[in-house]
Structures are given as C-alpha cells and as structure tokens.
Amino acid sequence: MKSILSLLILSVALSFPLSQIQAHQESHKEQPGVGIEEKLGQTIPLDLILKDEKGNPVRIGQLIQRPTILAPVYYHCPDVCSLLLHNLARALNQLSSEPGKEYRVVAFSFDEKETSGLALEKKAFYLKMIEKPFPEEAWKFLTDGRENIHQLTEAVGFRFKREGKDFLHPVSLIILSREGKIVRYLYGPDPLPLDLKMALLEASEGRVGPTINKVLRFCFSYDPKGRKYVFNILKVTGSVTLLFALSFAVFLFFKGKRRQPKAGE
C-alpha cells in the first residue's frame, strides 16, 4: 500500500517540472505592494474632500448617498483602466436601475498629477457610450492631491505602484452602500450587468457580499507587468491532480482493508 501511495505522489510531482513551475511563478507573481486588501464591511472616510470634473471640491459623503460603484483608475491609462471604464459604460447601458436615484458611479484617479480638465474630458467621452438617458451627476470623475487620494485608496485596500508615467495596479470595482460601507469587490476589466445588478441590490440592503474572490484569487493572479489577470493553470491542475491521487490512494487503502482475511479463516 505504501508503495502505491509513493508512486502516486511521485507521478504528481513528475507531471509538473520544477523549472516550469518556477518560470510560471516568476512571470506571474504580483509585485510587492500591488493588489487588493479587501476591507469588506468597513466604511470609507465620508468627510474626505476631492475635486470633481469641474474642479469644485466635493465631500465623498455627499456623493455616497445611494448604492455606489467606485472605480479607482487613472485617466491617461493606455489599457486596462480605459477598458474597465468602456466596459462599465456598456454594462450601465444594460442596467434597469435608474441612475442617480437608485445608484451612482464615482470614478477617481489615483494619479495626483491628473487634472479636473482631463477628468471632464473623460467623463464626456464615456457618457457618450451610454445610449439611454443618464444624468451627468450620476457619474462623477474625481481627482485630487496625493494625500487625499492615499486616504481613499487605503480605505478600500487598493494598492498601486508608479512605474514611470504609468502605474502597476489591480483592476477592480468597489461597491458601496449608501452609508459608505464596502459591500463587494468586482474583479477584472469586464464587469457583467448581472454582477453589477446583484451587487447594487446587496448595497441597497447593506449586505456584505460573499468573498468568492478567494476562489478567484486561487485560480487567477494579477500580472501587473501585462496589466491583466492570468489563469493559474499549474496551480489549479496540480491541486486537482493531487486531490485525485490522494482520493484514489485512500480508496485503495480501504478497499485493501476490506479484502484482508479475518483471523482463523
């Protein structure tokens, strides 16, 4: 029995060469200080003041008076931020909920060098993508200085790192209740209308969403160099294979015990 178990474990180990595993880990591991530290159930600082797209100071608590979709981005991002906002606009176009009354969207730049003028330009661009009536006040585009931005990103657990003119950063939407409580994180650059609808419903009831992201974090990891989520195929298939091998070994063990002749036979 021991020899069978040893062979099974050895076969699993040999099926994943060490050099291949190391290469995968090196190419896809997250950069230190970049990622999401979930803070479900915690409240963001409602007294924090940032600038809206017209350069006017606005208190976060004034905006978060209904379920809110919070989008941390930087506006001159050449890829995933633009993709996120584009797909968000497309998803909002399919929501049956009434914008401005049943929910609000707040995008904010974590690049302290970006201006309200750029925010206004981006707002006009993405609002044009929404074909149904959508009040301008229902989607705010915020900017501000380093200190205030840091307070907000820390409050939602959003960790990023400057790299030249661009940033290494995760891609996520944060859903807030009308009290400013974090109820759910939606990962990736392509939010689905159904996911948004369910998250906003939970936010309207003040319910914190399930942490299914733990499963997603196991299956996917964020590659800040490529600015995308990648499927951890070696981790997942290795775990499944190992689980199958151990289950088979347990099956053989108990099957062998049942076949052992009783004493005196």
Ordered list of secondary-structure elements with their pairings:
Blueprint (H helix, E strand, L loop, with lengths): L1 H13 L3 H11 L6 E2 L12 E3 L5 E3 H4 L4 E6 L6 H13 L11 E6 L6 H12 L11 E4 L3 H11 L1 E2 L1 E3 L2 E3 L3 E5 L5 E6 L5 H13 L7 H7 E4 L4 E4 L1 H27 L6
Parallel strand pairs: 4-5, 5-6
Antiparallel strand pairs: 1-7, 2-3, 4-10, 8-9, 10-11, 12-13
Characterise the protein shown here.
The protein is of the alpha+beta class and 265 residues long. The chain has a domain at 35-209: Glutaredoxin, CATH 3.40.30.10. Helix content is 42%, strand content 19%. It contains nine helices and 13 strands. It has helices at 2-14, 18-28, 60-63, 80-92, 116-127, 146-156, 193-205, 213-219, 233-259; strands spanning 35-36, 49-51, 57-59, 68-73, 104-109, 139-142, 158-159, 161-163, 166-168, 172-176, 182-187, 220-223, 228-231. The strands form five sheets. Strands 6-5-4-10-11 form a five-stranded mixed sheet, with helices on both faces. Strands 1-7 form a two-stranded antiparallel ribbon. It has a two-stranded antiparallel ribbon with strand order 2-3. Helix 1 packs antiparallel against helix 9 (233-259). The longest helix is centred in the C-terminal third of the chain and has 27 residues, at 233-259. It is elongated and about 80 Å long. It starts with a helix and ends in a 6-residue tail after the last helix.
